[in-house]
Design brief:
Blueprint lengths: L1 H8 L10 E3 L2 E3 L2 H17 L8 H22 L2 H7 L5 E3 L5 E3 L1
Antiparallel strand pairs: 1-2, 3-4
Length: 102
């Protein structure tokens, strides 16, 4: 029974179970359960995103996608272009035969 209550109050993947509240009692019926199961199956089979995704979570997803795209963009560049972006360390010799970093 707790699962049915969750389906009514929170839903699953953006699909909620239809119900009616009379007094302090919540009611549903077999037809509502069948519609709920059909809608949920359709959502799962189509791979639709959960419409209940929070704004914060969507921003996190968008940021991660941009970071990945940026990394992939760097990997797709010719090696010489990637090396130009990296800071180079210049070395000079002090005459003693050993190189020193600046």
């Amino acid at each position: 029974m707790s699962a049915v209550y969750r389906w009514i109050t929170r839903g699953v993947r953006g699909v909620s179970l239809d119900s009616i509240k009379i007094g302090g009692t919540t009611y549903t019926n077999l037809e509502a359960l069948q519609r709920f199961a059909d809608e949920l199956s359709e959502t799962i089979n189509t791979g639709a995103n959960c419409p209940g995704t929070t704004v914060t979570r969507q921003r996190q997803i968008d940021r991660a996608e941009r970071e990945v795209a940026g990394l992939l963009g760097e990997l797709r560049q010719p090696k010489s272009a990637r090396q130009q972006k990296m800071p180079s360390r210049s070395r000079h010799h002090d005459g003693s035969g050993s190189a020193k970093s600046q």
